[in-house]
């Protein structure tokens, strides 16, 4: 039986992955449970818009009773912003697999209505259970439909209940050593810009560490190298779509919709400018429309690249449309062509450079007094100080779904 669950946590605690880890122990699973990240731009997410699915063997009625019992016990149903959804599917034939996969592809990349999930659930004979407004059904169904051609894994260690809400301590050196030995097979352990440790989240959720990597074996090795400074209740490995760019779709600006996750190719048509808060924006045009692209303050040095762009540069941008209408929140950028920039230098006369005679007044020679018009100025190329290629935001600002550059080209995977 296939089980999908979503939207069980609140900012005060819980995490849907924890529920999945408990169910794995209780029910046993044939494969790794899936942690499926969905559209990071939708406003209802608690944190990382993750849903889970698992496949279990056993007597259906018993399984359903256990799952729904756990959801009632652990989900923060009393929080009005927590809207759990649970999906059960006995079997999935090829036709339904296609429908579910299509639904996942849409949910990871665009905005989906609850009624669309209801319709797909009916078509594929899924049994659905909704709590509060039931929006969790969207993620639950998408998680069951997710088939991952490119995938990564995450090992999540959970805290003991008595530590919930307390500060997470970590032996920083053990993480640095783990990263030294296992990177890039594990990734996003440390932020290179700040040196910050990224495997320990903040907040009230039950997670103490999460390590991401290419396969379960490397995660087990990495976990063995970490020295936790608090007791760990349990550890669970998930198969995930994190770090795969599964959310991005090639689009044209004229066809963009709110919350879309997109790849756009075009030209810079407005020089970068800084807005309040230190965010840097530039204008992009692709012939069908124009959009502002933003490197937010949180993206640190990535903004230096954005700041260096000029009108005429040809780029591919990767990102999501967030709450600001018509602004793309950049996840990475590929610079395809840099416009040549020139400055005009005075010509030579009497073995010396002439001087400017004033704005639009040409040049004059200090020695012999000769005058030349502006058209005799010598164009000198200004080095752009940047190279063609990919640039991405630092790991601390990265969306869970965004593919780090270090993963590009692996197994023929590339989002460009
Ligand atoms: P949790 O750990 O509980 O899963 P979260 O940060 O992952 O926390 P949720 O609390 O699950 O966020 O909130 C996301 C909500 O948005 C869920 O109800 C999910 O079903 C729904 N959702 C996910 N993707 C989409 C989408 N593309 N369109 C509409 N709703 C979506």
Describe the protein.
The protein has 416 residues and is of the alpha+beta class. It folds into four domains: 2-145, Alpha-Beta Plaits, CATH 3.30.70; 152-240, Glycinamide Ribonucleotide Synthetase, Chain A, domain 4 (Alpha-Beta Complex), CATH 3.90.600.20; 249-338 and 384-400, OB fold (Dihydrolipoamide Acetyltransferase, E2P) (Beta Barrel); 341-382, no CATH class. The chain is built from eight helices and 23 strands. It has helices spanning 16-27, 60-74, 94-109, 114-123, 136-145, 172-182, 216-225, 302-307, and strands at 2-6, 34-37, 50-55, 85-89, 127-130, 152-159, 186-187, 207-213, 232-240, 249-250, 261-275, 279-285, 290-295, 314-321, 327-337, 341-345, 348-349, 352-353, 355-356, 363-364, 371-372, 378-382, 389-392. It has a nine-stranded mixed β-sheet with strand order 5-4-1-3-2-9-6-8-7, with helices on both faces. It has a five-stranded mixed barrel with strand order 11-12-13-15-14. A three-stranded antiparallel β-sheet has the order 19-20-21, with no helix packed on it. Strand 12 and strand 13 form a beta hairpin. It is elongated, with a radius of gyration of 26 Å. 40% of the residues are buried. The structure holds adenosine-5'-triphosphate. Adenosine-5'-triphosphate binds at residues 6-9, 15-16, 38-39, 42, 44-51, 83, 85, 107, 110-112, 135-136, 138-139.
